[in-house]
Design brief:
The structure holds two protein chains of two kinds.
Chain A (H helix, E strand, L loop, with lengths): L2 H7 L3 H9 L27 E2 H10 L24 H6 L2 E6 L2 E7 L4 H10 L1 E5 L4 E6 L3 H8 L11 E8 L6 E11 L2 E6 L4 H19 L5 E4 L4 E6 L3 H5 L10 H4 L9 E4 L13 E4 L8 E6 L7 H9 L6 E3 L2 H10 L39 H9 L6 E8 L10 E4 L7 E12 L5 E9 L8 E6 L2 E8 L13
Parallel strand pairs in A: 4-14
Antiparallel strand pairs in A: 2-3, 4-10, 5-8, 5-9, 6-7, 7-8, 10-13, 11-12, 12-13, 15-18, 15-20, 16-17, 16-19, 17-18, 19-20
Chain B lengths: L1 H17 L2 H7 L21 E3 L4 E5 L5 E6 L1 H7 L2 E5 L6 E2 L4 E7 L3 E5 L4 E6 L2 H4 L3 H4 L8 E5 L11 H9 L1
Antiparallel strand pairs in B: 1-2, 2-3, 3-9, 4-6, 5-8, 6-7, 8-9
The chains are: A alpha+beta, B alpha+beta.
């Protein structure tokens, strides 16, 4: 979900690229978890831009072609709209191009910082329908996913999910990050980033074709669930907003009780519409999110019920003292505080999971070189065995008071202040709303500079600002887990 | 609060901007300048405020030698919560279009470009501790730099308020 930023940056792409060329190869780093990175993005410049550029981006959505966001992002292609586009406009959204979609950046009722804090204190609803939802089933589904990801999927129980990534053959570079949910023995639902749609579909097509050619055309059934909407309800009040809406007529009481739906679990449930009837389809409700808060992602079918995404959204927003709409701006600052990576910024095909400090996505039972068959296993397993061979890794930085260190800012070692040595680059950074505006950043730094407590510095508009390597996340994750 | 201020201020400055027109028109009725193109020589220096397409404003002080530079109401509103303002160093010489500072919101960093050539007298120290002043009063207390203008005639190339408004309404 790299998208928004990428698109927004298009104007400055030449400058950004030039800057990137001066940096060590791993200039795009990554971080922690998961997926939606995509939606997170906001209008974050790499290099300082003029007001005109920033404002144009924010206000009028210029179109920018970026090679990593080819889908519907070249200037002549119209932006796609999600099923909730009209609702966003009606509710005063500032719309911006993001990953080929016209997406809400923020809404008139709350500023970026207010919306961010609202999510931390109450509940926010994000439209993430631009993300790509897939269904993969058949006797070969598990094998295929075990080749393209390093996750222990055979240990995944039905209706549970895991953060994972799609790996490039040979290099073990991350083609995308994703969340994979096992629905049944040989049936999987997974969500990938909108900004990587073109690359992901090409990659999956090739892998699936290759598998079918060996195991028969019926070994795999793959479907992109193009007609589904996806919304994320995030924040401490999320469960209290959703629970009263769950329809109890069609399910047993234990199924409709969200308190037993833990982080990483999903259930198909109906909601009750204002007229007392149940929604036309069951919704796939997953207890997950990309903000560090408790919350849900709700996949909404539209077959025969094109209005269902709006109906569900309006239900979830019925009490504006609890839940409000939030856009990409808040999503980006929330996920960064939670230490979560934005694809295209904090992670890319140039990084393996261990370099991105995401080694934990490699399942315990998939680390035996004799049996590990996932793409790039030899590279990734040798990095896990000998971390010192990883040239650069993703770290958190706390940057001193002053201007934030943003994407592209060079990280320097100032052990000899007279002679600062470049040792890395910032991939995401902003003043953290939850931390009173303290500057936080993700960066890739050279081997040896990655340990917590290492004193470094970043260059912001050519001034050197002190920075310290810190652990992530910056805010405590509040996932709903069994106690 | 600030949104009220925002709504009122443009009106006030519009009223101000119209004041000089009346005498000018009386003197040369045949040469009625459309609003926005009245030339510098016909405007009292003390009221000369101009804008750039890149959303900066510049206002000449009395005497016409120095000016304050800031970002427009529209820009401040669009950027959202300003968290840091980088001020220019004293005596910095700039050409038109060169940065005299930067404004950082949570989501972006934007250079503030000087509308004209000149030498920096000072940055607005208020912004060092209270960057949010930019949101509260972008065209007043939230000015960013005071500059000694090299050539006052250079202001004539800039947009007047009506022309600027057209650029943002377009």
């Amino acid at each position: 979900m790299s998208s928004i930023r990428l698109v927004a940056r298009g104007v400055d792409l030449a400058a950004a690229r030039a800057a990137a060329l001066n940096l060590p190869r791993a200039s795009i780093g990554s971080t922690v978890l998961r997926r939606e990175l995509s939606s997170a993005a906001t209008v974050r410049p790499t290099v300082s831009r003029s007001l005109r550029t920033n404002i144009t981006v924010a206000a009028t959505a210029p179109l920018a072609a970026n090679q990593t966001v080819r889908y519907a992002s070249s200037s002549n292609e119209p932006l796609s709209k999600t099923q909730l586009y009209d609702l966003h406009v009606e509710r005063g959204a500032k719309m911006v191009p993001f990953a080929g979609f016209d997406m809400p950046l923020q809404y008139t009722d709350l500023s970026h910082v207010e919306s961010h804090m609202w999510t931390r204190e109450k509940a926010s609803l994000f439209d993430v329908s631009h993300m790509v939802q897939h269904h993969l089933s058949g006797p070969g589904a598990l094998d295929l996913l075990k080749k393209v990801t390093p996750s222990s999927l055979d240990k995944l129980a039905p209706n549970t999910s895991t953060l994972s990534c799609l790996l490039e053959e040979g290099t073990g570079g991350m083609i995308d990050d994703c969340v994979i949910t096992r629905r049944s023995e040989d049936s999987f639902y997974f969500v990938t980033n909108a900004g990587r749609r073109t690359e992901d579909l090409a990659f999956l097509t090739a892998e699936i074709e290759a598998y079918r050619s060996q195991h028969g055309a019926d070994s795999l059934k793959w479907e992109v669930l193009a007609d589904r909407a996806l919304v994320a309800l995030q924040g401490p009040l999320a469960a209290s907003v959703l629970q009263p809406l769950i329809n109890t007529a069609n399910h047993t009481p234990s199924e409709t009780d969200l308190s037993t739906l833990y982080f990483g679990n999903c259930r198909e449930l109906h909601l009750t519409l204002p007229d007392g009837s149940a929604t036309a389809h069951p919704l796939l409700i997953s207890r997950t999110g990309y903000t560090g808060e408790d919350g849900f992602e709700i996949s909404i079918p539209t077959s025969g019920a094109p209005n269902l995404p709006r109906q569900v959204t309006e239900l979830l927003l019925a009490d504006s003292s609890k839940s409000r709409l939030a856009g990409l701006a808040a999503r980006d600052s929330l996920r960064l505080e939670a230490g979560m990576c934005l694809y295209g910024h904090d992670i890319s095909t140039a990084q393996t999971p261990p370099a991105a400090a995401l080694g934990w996505v490699v399942g315990r039972d998939r680390r035996d070189p004799a049996t590990a068959t996932f793409n790039g296993a030899s590279v990734i397993l040798s990095q896990l065995a000998s971390p010192k061979t990883i040239p650069q890794r993703r770290v958190g930085l706390n940057v001193e008071k002053g201007p934030p260190a943003r994407e592209g800012a060079v990280v320097v070692d100032i052990a000899d202040p007279a002679n600062p040595v470049e040792v890395g680059v910032v991939t995401s950074g902003l003043p953290s709303p939850s931390l009173g505006g303290a500057n936080i950043a993700m960066a890739y730094v050279n081997q040896g500079f990655h340990k917590k407590g290492t004193e470094l510095a970043v260059k912001v508009r050519n001034k050197v600002r002190k920075a310290t390597v810190v652990g992530m996340p910056w805010i405590e994750s509040k996932f709903h887990r069994p106690s | 609060m600030s949104s009220v201020a925002r709504a009122i201020r443009p009106l006030a400055s519009r009223v101000l901007a119209q004041k000089p027109i009346a005498p000018v028109c009386k003197a040369t009725p045949a040469f009625r300048f459309p609003r926005g193109t009245r030339s510098f020589s016909q405007s009292p220096l003390s009221q000369l405020k101009k804008y750039t397409e890149s959303h900066e404003w510049i206002e000449l002080a009395e005497g016409g030698k120095t000016a304050k530079i800031g970002i427009t109401d529209y820009a401040a509103h669009s950027l959202g919560d300003v968290v840091y303002v980088e001020l220019p160093e004293e005596d910095l010489e700039v050409s038109a279009g060169e940065p005299v500072g930067a404004v950082e919101s949570v989501k972006s960093a934007s250079d503030v470009l000087s509308p004209v050539a000149g030498k920096i007298i000072r940055g607005n120290a208020v912004l060092e501790d209270k960057a949010k002043t930019i949101n509260e009063s972008p065209e007043g207390e939230g000015w960013i730099a005071e500059i000694e203008v090299a050539d006052v005639a250079e202001l004539e190339q800039l947009l007047d308020e009506a022309a600027y408004k057209e650029t943002i309404d377009a």
